[in-house]
Structure formats: structure tokens, C-alpha cells
Amino acid sequence: RISKEEAKKVIDKCLEVGINFIDTARAYTVSEEFIGYAIKGNRDKWILATKSPAKTYADMKRDIETSLRNLQTDYIDLYQLHNPKGEGVMDQILAEDGAYKALLDAKKEGKIGHIGITNHSADFSLEAIKDNLFETIQFPYNPIENLGEEKLFKKAAELDMGIIAMKPIAGGAFNADLSLKYILNNPLVTTAIPGMDSIEQVIKNSSIGINLQPLTE
Description:
The chain has nine helices and seven strands, in the order αβαβαβααβαβαβαβα. The chain is about 45% helix and about 15% strand. It is of the alpha/beta class.
């Protein structure tokens, strides 16, 4: 929604106020390229996460290389399976010629640091994480979408997984200040990833974490 130069200004502001985690994806059009341009020269200050919907070894291997090139880096901190769904899909991903093996190989080669998974179904996610193959789970979480909290987040915490709250302001449907406050008051949540396309949003959102207050009744 903004230009490459505007994106750099937003990301520079994020760094200035103490934000150090960026989530993107192969599917987010020019996002990886813009982020790569914006963090050039400051790569060591960022925790970079991206993701791919690839299911086969060849497709995931290709996407990892594309992400590295787009982000202008030789390593990505967190590479995630992007919202797998459907019967049998995890069997395909975990097969000998599946996407998970490509992630493992990339990790051994030092191209990625950690392997995660994103999803929108609590039941699917619970099944996917049961064998402790992933280090993070990214799942929708906000005051009006909190179905995963009771079962999924507790199980993920038991497995020592990082919990990334996506859609933290419900796509703009909920008050950002209250929603981020609600999320960050949950000790199970590792981080929240609101989309931001202006310096004003960066200042406003970061202020909730900088001056976090407990929830009142």
C-alpha cells in the first residue's frame, strides 16, 4: 500500500522505537523486496520471519532461496509453513520429498534459524504441533478472535513454542490500543504483529508495549 521509500521510513521508525521483529511472506507481493531494501545495513538489528505455502521439497527450497535474495540476507531467523490446510496436507509436507525436509536442510546449512507454522484453525494447529516439529506457531488472536487461546496456546507453551499473535487488531475491526493491550497482557503470547503502513501507526502501536498497563475489569 506504500512505496519502497515510504516503507523504509516506517521500518526505520520501528527500529527507533524498539521494534525488532518483522513478519512477511512469499505471498505478500513486494513485501520481502521492500523489507530487504529497508533493512540493508541494519540486518543484525532485526529478527526476520517469512513464510511459504510450498508443500514439496523442490518448491520450498526454491522459495527459501527467493526469500534470501529478496530480503538481501544470507540467513532468515524464522521460516514458517504458511497456513497449510486440508486432509493429508501435513503428510505431504512431512514426507521424504516434502517441504519440511527442505526447511531442515536449510537450517543445517545456516540459511534459516528456526522453523515455524502459521494457521487459522485451532484443531488443525493442535494436530500439526503434537510431534513438536515446530518452534513457533502463528495464529489469529485478539479480543474478538480468541478461540485458540484456551487449548492451542497452552499446548504450544507446554512445548516451549513461541506464540505469534497475528491479526492483533482484527483487520482494523477493533480498537488498536485496547486490542494490543489485551494481547500483551497474556503471558503466553511472545509477540504481536500488527500491520503498519505509516510512522503514526508505529508510534501509536509501540507506545502500548513501551508503557504496558495491566487490564482492568
